[in-house]
TrEMBL record:
Its cofactor is Zn(2+). This is Replication restart protein PriA. Zn(2+) 2 binds at C459, C462, C477, C480. One of its GO terms (molecular function) is zinc ion binding.
Length: 743
């Protein structure tokens, strides 16, 4: 058994001796789809305290788990209880993290072990850290001296230990030179202490804040200095400098020696953000997202657990890092739907960040130019402090937004840009500014149709048409990833040359741009291309620097970018996201998306323009965008939600029943609905065929549960599932509390 420094400090001896027929038992939760912790015998009479990572036998395997409660005396024969194999030399999982696991599991109706699994998603953190070696000067100079060797010895003359690559880099020589010097005895290889993350310095480069910014920052700083739980909604127009403002609260927390977590919706793309952080604090924050390597994950997990990592910028999963002393969480772009995780444990990261603040007694800042209705209502009802920024930094005016009525001013046949939009792009280029054309649809065309027989090419495993990606010569399913090489003949009737693409995606708009503006450098920014992170980052840099004059992008371009030369944003299809029937947030989301994407225009100089192509210029969302009257829009939307008892005034849970065969799914969904316990104030709707009835070969039915805010929805759902008929065969049931997707 290993007892390292963490356990040595925490271990306590159990003095109470078990009686005959009794045994000391410690509950251990393992990161599997299990609800409860299992009992184990502590190693050698010494009970590891709650939070300790231990290795235990489970079935025929060994697993790493966490001690989930205090040791107690159990009435079991000692033989019946397996023993903890080993106590790991890893910092214990803090009590706040354990309470968070319990809370998330209870709220989302997920097995506790699955939530713990998210907290342990860095397997390398639990393996012993291998020693690192470096070189320092030693012994006499080598018999054979070369200029390269001399350079190395000059660098090493200070006696410091450096990793091989570092020493080679500093001396400007190859690694072989170092090895040669070590063989000659002039350098010695020694063990190095583990690397420590760079410390962000709160005093590194404080900005000069505009008066309104300073006032807002003051309120955020107060919350940090006061300590304890609070939530501030930092609500400021696009380009107001919200980042600069919340950085001051970050600085205040760092100055108190606490850790800071900043959640970003697209961390993999936000090198701009990391650089801004470095400019303010002297070094980049630690990054945490799915594109990181295993070794790095392990290193960061440990650094966070030891309190050495002071600032972490991450995707939603960073919430589940084992912070030793978290003093502030910032959720940037808090309205973003991508904060909702849509598989395994279905949680909304913004909400969990608030809960984490409550459990850990620290402030939380939610920042957005287009806050969610949920947060606006919380601010109005006084649960959140509302901190506003009403004007852009540097005094630039907000963009002027106008609709292009496609009924009156349509594009030519087979084109997607109306004459009005084309001439606006032309004027923008003539003024030496950049233009952005926004269409939230990847690929070339969303539908391929056979003119001979009318067949629409669909995914064999999903009820969805395949999207053409012309650059790759493929048709792809955006739901399951199915790929078909672009056929020449119709797969249904076999006639050749009759397949036509219908409707536009960004690639097709880019094609039109290339035809209309052949000599103008353009760039496409689409999440298709995120497979290659460095390429996307390069594209963003090309746009920021002004090299790309026309940008064609999906919602990826809407996310917090600052492109100084961008003056015009044209929305190719403003009606696209409004058409999501059955989604209570469709209007809200359209409003946010349009405001965000148009908010990229005119950030450094006034005169930014947003043009929205729409068939419904009189729709309340369009009217609100054009008049810039956010408050009226919000008031309307909030009143409608309240009247319909929709979030945040009511609570929703979706239940998705799926099976390999349609009748099987339907039958079970109906049986499940019948088993719902009677509850006066809870409404169960459905089952109904899901809008996407088939995904990955599974047929889907949906039920929607609606309850007033003060009803214990989880208790109802649990009671229901306890009475539900057994799901047999291929039937699966998913519960999605607070759903954001209604497909
Ligand atoms: N006090 C300041 N001093 C210097 N530069 C500032 C200051 N405040 C803001 N800026 C600059 O103004 C630009 C816009 O700021 P920022 O990106 O933080 O806006 P934002 O409020 O986050 O906007 P959005 O919601 O549109 O992303 C940035 O380039 C930022 O560096
Ligand atoms: Zn598919």
């Amino acid at each position: 058994m290993v007892t390292g420094p963490y356990q040595a400090a925490q271990a306590r001896l159990d003095l109470e001796e078990p009686q005959e027929g009794q045994v000391r038992a410690v509950p251990v939760l393992v990161p599997l789809a299990l609800e409860e912790a299992y009992d184990y015998q502590p190693p050698e009479g010494e009970a590891p305290p709650p939070g300790t990572f231990v290795r235990v036998p489970l079935g025929s395997a060994r697993r790493i788990g966490v001690v989930w409660g205090a040791a107690r005396t159990a009435d079991v024969a000692p033989k019946k209880l397996k023993s903890i194999i080993e106590v790991l030399d890893v910092p214990a999982l803090p009590a706040v993290s354990r309470r968070l696991v319990d809370w998330v599991a209870n709220y989302t109706l997920s097995p506790r072990g699955m939530v713990l699994k998210m907290m342990m998603s860095a397997p390398r953190a639990f393996e012993p850290e291998g020693p690192r070696f470096g070189y320092r000067a030693a012994g006499p100079p080598p018999d054979r001296m070369t200029p390269a060797r001399e350079k190395v010895l000059n660098v090493a003359a200070d006696g410091a230990v450096r990793a091989k690559a570092e020493l080679a880099r500093e001396a400007g020589v190859s690694a072989a030179v170092i090895e040669g010097l070590a063989a000659a005895g002039s350098l010695i290889r020694v063990e190095m202490p583990p690397p420590r993350p760079a410390l962000p310095d709160p005093e590194h480069a404080p900005p000069e804040l505009a008066p309104e910014q300073a006032e807002a920052a003051g309120k955020l700083i107060d919350a940090v200095r006061r300590g304890g739980f609070s939530v501030c909604l930092l609500d400021g127009v696009t380009g107001a400098g919200k980042t600069e403002v919340y950085f001051e609260a970050v600085a205040a927390a760092l100055a108190r020696g606490q850790q800071v977590l900043i959640l970003l919706p697209e961390i993999a793309l936000t090198s701009q953000f990391l650089d801004r952080f470095a400019k303010r604090f002297g070094c980049r924050p630690m990054e945490w997202h799915s594109a990181m390597g295993a070794a790095e994950r392990g290193r960061i997990w440990r650094a966070v657990a030891k309190g050495e990592a002071r600032a972490v910028a991450g995707a939603r999963s960073a919430l589940f890092l084992p912070f030793a002393d978290l003093g502030l969480t910032v959720v940037d772009e808090e309205h973003e739907q991508s904060f909702k995780q849509e598989d395994y444990v279905r949680y909304q990261a913004r909400d969990v960040a608030v809960v984490r603040g409550k459990l850990g007694k620290h402030p939380v800042i939610l920042s957005s130019a287009t806050p969610s209705i949920e947060s606006v209502v919380n601010a109005r009802q006084g649960r959140y402090e509302h901190v506003r920024l009403t004007s852009r930094y540097a005094g630039a005016a907000l963009p002027d937004i106008r609709a292009i009525d496609l009924r009156a001013d349509p594009p030519e046949r087979g084109r997607w840009l109306s004459p009005a939009l084309v001439s606006a792009v032309r004027d923008t280029l003539a003024a030496d500014k950049q233009a952005l054309l926004f269409l939230n649809r990847r690929g070339y065309a969303p539908l391929t149709l056979c003119r001979a027989c009318g067949y629409r090419i669909e995914c064999p495993q999903c009820s969805a048409t395949l999207v053409e990606h012309r650059a790759r010569g493929k048709l792809t399913c955006h739901h399951c990833g199915f790929v078909l090489p672009r056929p020449g003949d119709c797969p249904a009737c076999g006639v050749s040359g009759k397949l036509v693409p219908c409707g536009p995606g960004v690639e097709r708009v880019a094609e039109e741009v290339a035809e209309r503006f052949p000599d103008v450098p353009a760039a496409i920014l689409s999440s298709d291309f995120t497979t290659n992170l460095s390429e996307v980052r390069e594209t963003i840099a090309r746009i920021s620097s002004g090299k790309a004059r026309i940008v064609i992008g999906t919602q990826l371009v809407a996310k917090g970018h600052h492109f100084p030369g961008l003056a015009l944003v044209g929305v190719v299809d403003g009606d696209l996201s409004l058409a999501q029937g059955g989604d209570p947030r469709a209007a809200e989301r359209t409003f946010q998306l349009m405001q965000q994407v148009i908010g990229r225009a005119g950030r450094e100089e006034s005169g930014g323009v947003g043009l929205i192509q729409t068939h419904a210029p009189d729709h309340p969302v369009m009217r609100a965008l054009i008049s810039g009257d956010r408050d009226t829009f919000l008031a309307r939307e909030i009143a409608a939600r309240e009247a319909a008892v929709l979030p945040p005034f009511g609570r929703l849970a979706a239940i998705i029943v799926s099976a390999g065969a349609k009748p099987e799914a339907e039958r079970y969904a109906q049986a499940l609905a019948k088993a719902a316990p009677p509850a006066a104030r809870i409404e169960v709707m459905g089952p109904a065929e899901a809008p996407l009835v088939l995904i990955r070969g599974r047929y889907r039915y949906r039920l929607l549960v609606k309850a007033p805010r003060n009803v214990d929805l989880q208790a109802f759902l649990r009671a229901w599932m306890d009475r539900a008929p057994l799901a047999k065969g291929s039937v699966r049931v998913i519960i999605d509390v607070d759903p954001y997707s209604f497909l």
